[in-house]
Write a structure and sequence with these properties.
This protein is of the alpha/beta class. 28% of the residues lie in helices and 19% in strands. It is built from 21 helices and 32 strands. The structure holds beta-D-glucopyranose.
């Protein structure tokens, strides 16, 4: 990382103390009465949050208030004399983020750390995702929060985006449907969600001031589509606008984005809030359609009051936002007088997170390469004879549950792979365990001492560092003779590779590629164990894509466990032991080399991150830092690799199982605008398993029309199929889903012609092709969010 420019909090952002707690239960708010009692200044206060009231300087880097629910990101502004309480807004998405302990209180307030968003999406199981959402929502409600600031559904435009772990996919249909399931689950509890970050928050570098320059078509088809799907299918209580500019205008100051697209075109009726300290001009943000500016700054208050006085902001617009916040307050458990218990069912939720993590793990390789001791069997699941496991890799012992920043969860524990194996009845090589534990303790001590040193020199940086992903120590290495002795004693080796990423920082090239110590560890362990006739499994404990092509031939099996939440080790062992077959599939493409991703030529790589907490920086002119031109246009992820025949390490939608599936009887029926594709999936192997089926559509004349070779339009997952069992799945598409955006006419156009419907096990594994004729149609949209200059856009 180069020299970091940091702006920390200015003092005096607190506007009011927030004292309201449980108000008497009321059903409705008389909005007209409330409005009539508010002065202009009251209204301006009401729409800007409580300015991090009561925050402690120690934890104020990401949203954190000491009010009502300590550690929650913020609250709305209370109007105590009118009986309007502050409602609590707290982060997700991997669980509720609040403080686990409170001053002067011996009770604990731990929350369940569920798997990261990427893992959840990799389950492709919307029923399960809804269950996870429901469990998270119960914690929100029982810990006295009202709105969960999640899910985060920005498109994984490039493998190095630091927050990809929170996001779902490179594809908007996966992102949108995953988000809808999550939101429906959370909101079943009568608490709200905030779908974020609307929109195009696809890099962390200079995130408060970077301009995402995107064609109208790519915006509509890729970057807004997932939001559109989720908003229509799940009605989140709130939407959070993003930090960045889009084509020269801050998202939070863009009326075209918030009013024209979100409200007018999509019919969104909820409340819109800014991201924490996002945007610059309070009056403009309100005019653009944000109802609430979080967490609230004095300048925003001044700007709103002055804006109304000067006529820049109509008071009627301010009143409308006040009413939308009142709608939100009215629905909230706090306003309705819900007596929360502070005792969510953490035990039940541990089971939910364990199961959900199992379903999102992706088996990448499983080959009987060097297995004489296993009679030629595949390494996974572990054969009967496997009892003693040699565990390598620091993160085997120090498992990473999730990413850092606002998406972190204050969990009570994390089950490491070591613990998971023991819980599963395996023994682990004790000498190795002892050596690793000493190594890790030493590395942690050194890191803490370095931070302390830094704190003396640069206290602000040290404070910030607590919220940034800290570099992991190099891998511990062994001599060949040490390894030979270990291989003699063990039945199999497992090596875990870990990656930690988070808010504020994009990942680096070094993070994408293996380090020298990781490469040496894998090479040496594979050599020695294979010589001893024993197999090696590599486990990936990561939040985003890494390079695999140069080393994936070495181990016998590779399992991507992602960052699997607090029960991670148990979930992994459920898979390794064969208690359950993995059934996750990738929701993003794994490139052979980083530079194979087209967006790698227009993404910040190893740049100064420009961490600007209070948005005090100015617009600059550095390519990929101050502005990023999305030159790949609509060719994001598999849309690029497929259309331009670029080889990949693992395709979108890929994932192996312990069993095999046969697809048959593909049929397509058309009823008016609805197309239904039926496919029968049979478990042809000898173990139970679930299969994810994907439906891609290839448009007529795609290449000449500059359309992707194919696009995902629907997906489904089977139930748990026993060996020999079949299930017929129906995948539904509406002809309206076959649109592409025509910039010349600002319209969504369905081209008339023969469409191919590709029933697939992954983007590279088409199992059946059907054809149907679709009539053309055009739906007018607004000509908004136009890029200001010419860009060098990729075309087929
Ligand atoms: C993040 C949001 C988060 C907010 C409140 C911001 O830094 O971008 O995702 O909800 O803080 O903590």
């Amino acid at each position: 990382m180069k020299k970091t420019a940091i702006f920390l909090f200015a003092a005096g952002a607190t506007l009011a103390a927030c004292t309201g707690s449980d108000q008497a239960a009321q059903k409705n708010i008389d909005q007209q009465e409330v409005l009539s009692r508010l002065s202009l200044e009251d209204k301006a206060h009401f729409v800007i949050g409580t300015g991090m009231a009561g925050f402690s300087g120690d934890n104020a880097v990401i949203g954190a208030t000491k009010n009502l629910v300590p550690g929650a990101a913020g609250t709305t502004y209370p109007l105590d004399s009118l009986g309007i309480p502050a409602v609590v807004l707290a982060d997700g998405p991997a669980g509720l983020r609040i403080d686990a302990t409170r001053e002067g209180d011996t009770a604990t307030y731990y929350c369940t750390h569920f798997p990261i968003g990427t893992l959840l999406a990799s389950t492709w199981n919307t029923t399960l995702i809804e269950e996870v959402g429901q469990a998270i929502g119960e914690e929100v409600k029982e810990y006295g929060a009202d709105v969960l600031l999640a899910p985060a559904i920005n498109i994984m435009r490039n493998p190095l985006c630091g927050r990809n772990f929170e996001y779902y996919s490179e594809d908007p249909v996966v992102a949108g449907n995953t988000a809808a399931a999550y939101i429906n689950g959370v909101q079943k509890n009568g608490v709200g969600t905030s779908i974020k970050h609307f929109a195009a928050n696809n890099q962390e570098t200079n995130r408060m001031n970077t301009d995402a320059r995107i064609s109208q078509r790519a915006l509509r088809e890729i970057y807004l589509k997932g939001f559109e799907i989720a908003i229509k299918e799940s009605k989140p209580w709130t939407v959070m606008t993003s930090y960045n500019y889009i084509n020269g205008t801050y998202s939070s100051e863009s009326k075209d984005l918030v009013e024209t697209i979100l409200r007018e075109e999509w019919g969104y009726e909820g409340t819109v809030m800014t991201d924490w300290f996002g945007g610059k001009d309070g009056a403009l943000q309100m005019w653009a359609g944000n109802d609430m500016l979080q967490p609230g700054k004095q300048e925003q208050f001044d700007s709103i009051v002055a804006g109304v006085k000067s006529g820049k902001l109509a008071e009627a617009d301010l009143d409308r936002s006040v009413q939308r916040i009142l709608n939100l307050v009215e629905k909230s458990p706090r306003y309705q007088g819900y007596k929360y218990s502070n005792k969510p069912d953490l035990k039940a939720h541990a089971a939910v997170t364990r199961q959900s993590a199992v379903e999102g793990m992706v088996l990448m390789k499983n080959e009987a390469t060097a297995a004489p001791t296993q009679g030629g069997a595949k390494p996974l699941p572990f054969a009967e004879g496997i009892k003693n496991v040699a565990l390598y890799g620091n993160t085997s012992y120090d498992f990473i549950a999730g990413g850092t920043g606002s998406g972190n969860v204050n969990h009570a524990y994390v089950v490491s792979l070591l613990d998971g194996l023991k819980n599963g009845g395996y023994t682990v090589a004790e000498d190795l365990k002892n050596a690793y534990e000493a190594y890790i303790a030493d590395a942690k001590q050194k890191a803490a001492a370095a931070l302390e040193e830094q704190a003396k020199k640069d206290p602000q940086m040290a404070q910030l560092a607590r919220f940034l992903p800290q570099p992991l120590p190099p891998e511990k290495l062994f001599s060949d003779s040490e390894l030979t002795a270990q291989a003699t004693a063990a039945d199999i080796a497992v090596i875990t590779l870990g990656r930690l990423s988070g808010e504020f920082l994009d990942r680096s090239m070094a993070d994408f590629n293996l380090s020298a110590s990781e490469r040496q560890l894998i090479t040496q362990v594979c050599n020695v164990y294979h010589k001893a006739g024993k197999q090696v499994v590599v486990l990936l404990n990561i939040g985003g894509v890494i390079e695999t092509a140069s080393w994936s031939h070495l181990p016998d099996a590779i399992l991507c466990a992602w960052q699997a939440g607090q029960e991670g080790g148990n979930s992994v062992v459920d898979v390794l032991s064969g208690k359950q077959s993995p059934s996750g599939k990738f929701t993003m493409t794994w490139p052979v080399k980083f530079t194979d991703a087209y967006s790698s030529r227009c993404f910040p790589i190893d740049e100064d991150p420009r961490i600007d907490m209070m948005n005090q920086g100015q617009k600059g002119d550095v390519r990929n830092v101050d502005y990023t031109e999305y030159e790949e246009d609509i060719y994001v992820g598999y849309r690029y690799f497929d259309s331009f025949d670029v080889p990949v390490a693992y395709p979108f939608g890929f994932g192996l199982s312990y069993t095999t599936f046969e697809y048959s009887d593909a049929k397509c029926s058309v009823d008016g605008d609805n197309i239904a594709v039926n496919i029968t999936v049979k478990n042809t192997g000898s173990r139970e398993g679930k299969e994810v089926v994907q439906l891609y559509i290839a448009a007529p004349d795609a290449k000449a029309q500059n359309k992707p070779a194919k696009e995902l339009k629907a997906f489904a997952k089977t139930k748990l199929l026993k060996p020999g069992e079949s299930q017929t799945l129906t995948l539904k598409v509406s002809t309206a889903d076959l649109v592409s955006f025509d910039e010349a006419s600002s319209a969504w156009v369905v081209a008339e012609g023969e469409y191919q419907m590709l029933v697939a096990a992954s983007a590279a594994d088409i199992r059946a092709t059907l054809t149907t004729h679709v009539k053309g149609s055009t739906t007018q949209a607004h000509n908004v969010l136009k890029p200001q200059g010419q860009m060098n856009l990729l075309r087929r």
